[in-house]
Design goal:
11 helices, globular, single chain, two-stranded antiparallel ribbon, 2 strands, A middle domain of Talin 1, 309 residues
């Protein structure tokens, strides 16, 4: 009965976390449009940060609750899920992702750089404060470059703001924090009772749950013909996950880096990041390539489940 109660708490907490993220993202996007920010930059920055809020909230909460191994699991698992599952589902649902711009000009090098930098900094099994500061500097450079190349929208395309927009932004942020707090508490209890390590749950259940906003936003944008927002969302979310989530979580305490993540999940993330660059090199991702990405995700989850048994 207690396990069922904890499962119920986990489901409600995760639902609260995702709904709060949804309200936060929508209001932040509306605020961005009111300032004349283009849809692609909104997808690359505002929406990407908003869809990374669940990872950030759960990571900070996990450190405060003494389950810091969840942080790296959440980051690595979410990055793999974003590329393999999110892009795969988008490509399959719309048959082909056509890119209107060359992401190899700056966005893909930034994504590869964030993945490689994470791999190098974790080779000693420690993520230090200076490395966290370095990550924030890298994030700042990414944001500055993105905004530097932004073109203002016409005045008549800007949206008007209401008090409700700011209210939903604040309420969404509160729901994200509370949802993350109770999600981590329930996961800690469930992992203890089931004998499954918290990092395994982070790499699978949390990674999938916190990637739901990316899945919903990306598929919705792609079906509306806005594939640039869908791809920009995945690119931006992974960069935010690596730089922002790791860095801010580290300021709240030491991060435990499980050896299993260094030997399997982190290399898998590197492979998926490189594969993302390869399949998008010709400015399109076909349905067959999307199916291949899904197969990689299925293999990844199967391996994690097998290792945890």
């Amino acid at each position: 009965m207690e396990i069922l109660i904890q499962v119920g708490i986990f489901i409600v907490s995760l639902a609260t976390l995702l709904k709060g993220s949804d309200w936060f993202i929508d209001s932040a996007e509306e605020i961005g449009l009111s300032f004349g920010i283009s849809p692609f930059i909104i997808g690359l920055t505002i929406v990407a940060f908003g869809t990374s809020l669940p990872e950030l909230a759960t990571s900070i909460s996990s450190v405060l609750h003494g389950e810091s191994s969840i942080v790296i699991g959440s980051v690595v698992g979410s990055n793999i899920t974003n590329i393999a599952l999110v892009l795969g589902l988008v490509a399959i649902s719309i048959k082909q992702i056509n890119l209107e711009y060359n992401i190899w000009h700056i966005d893909m090098p930034f994504l590869w750089g964030s993945a490689f930098l994470l791999w190098f900094t974790l080779q000693d099994g420690v993520f230090s404060i200076p490395e966290a500061i370095l990550f924030l500097v890298a994030l700042g450079i990414f944001l500055l470059y993105s905004l530097k190349n932004e073109r203002d929208e016409d005045e008549d395309e800007r949206t008007a703001l209401s008090a409700k927009t700011y209210g939903l932004l604040i309420l969404g942020g509160i729901m994200v924090w509370l949802g993350a707090d109770f999600t981590i508490k329930s996961i800690s209890d469930l992992s203890l009772r089931a004998g499954i390590s918290p990092e395994t749950i982070a790499l699978t259940v949390i990674a999938f749950g916190t990637s739901l906003p990316e899945i919903i936003v990306s598929i919705s944008a792609a079906k509306k013909g806005k594939t640039s927002i869908a791809v920009g969302n995945v690119l931006g979310s992974n960069i935010f996950n690596t730089y922002c989530v790791m860095a801010f979580a580290r300021f709240f305490g030491e991060l435990e880096i499980p050896g299993g993540i260094l030997t399997f999940s982190l290399p898998m993330m590197i492979v998926m990041t490189i594969l993302f660059g390869i399949v998008s090199n010709n400015k399109k991702i076909t349905q067959w390539e999307g199916l291949m990405l899904i197969l990689f995700y299925v293999f990844y989850v199967m391996e994690l489940v097998t290792k945890s048994l």
